[in-house]
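Hi R.,

Here's the chain you asked about this morning:
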Amino acid sequence: MNFIKSATSEGLADADGVTHSEYVNLYRHFAKNRELSIIITGHIAVSREGRPEARCVFLTDGEGYPYKLRTRNLRRMTEAVHSENPSVKIIAQLNHGGRQIPRLQLRKNKTSICCSPIQKKVNKSAFMFKTPNQTPQSCKYIKDQFVIGAKQMEQAGFDGVQIHCAHGYLLHDCIKAGLIQFVMEILTEIKDQCKGILMIKVNADEDNLKFINEAIKIVDIVELSKGSYDNPNDMIENHRSKPAACFIEQHQELTKQKAKICVTGGFHTREEGQNVLMEQICHYVGFGRLYLMPQITKVQRLSFGRMVQALSKFMPLINAGPATIFYEEEQRRIAKKIALKNEDEMKRVGIMWWFVCMIISFFGFQRYNTIRDMTK
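And here is the predicted structure, written out as tokens:
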């Protein structure tokens, strides 16, 4: 079946950006699902300074620690996935957080550089994010980081990479700012130097159509999605409706190209995805949250109470953010093998959980930290 497990941040790396057995457990769990054609990892930052959140896998150069340990442990995960399900492809999503790296996270990344061609901080984010102080043109090494990262993923046994050009991160900002050539050079170099599948993730917006038409000539699969921290209402809408599917219905000429099209967002059941595929609107349907609960049934809509719902009209992130964190926690609970049945997991949600979640995330922490058990 042409279903894709879309990238969902899992936060299962240690402080050095190295994964361990829980990461293997999680992706082996996904691989057991025989309806999946492709599994895409949560975003892997191409550098420490580009890491958008705590416990995100990030890449480094060199031949010593932690480069060798990270590569070996990632290879153990890809081998486990291929052993569990030889027909599924495992893809590494590469990303740079750009201006969507919180201030506290920048300190943990040991950098003061906030890079974006859009020199203003994220809209309606209060003091959470910093105003960018560098551009991609002045940080020319960023292009190399994506290319070197793709090579490292090939060495770690991945079947390919997905370059994250959506959701308000660095390369999405480059596209918005008209730096399409900068992004195209990254894609071209990866295609020339790596043998695996090349995917991109891009927002399903009319403003991105020029880039999509260029990229579709190079890449193998285009995944369409929606939303960013600048437009958190789009993030919410992406989970409630099907903006990517509507976009591709209006631009069916894109499906006639060599590259395949995947639409992600708003699909709550397998049946909804099957209907889109049967109508031949696209080649793949991506699901994120459908696969993040212990039993794969239907995506649950989370409710944090009327107060949060009312406040979210003025600051949408206070609703969208905790919802994302809940599903991140579900992945960590699955990886640690402590997840209960769906209905029991949903009982954790409520105003008290939301309050604790907001406090923990404000200080840049998370629950269920990674156990470093694959150091030898």
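One quick note: The chain has one domain: 3-299.

Cheers,
M.
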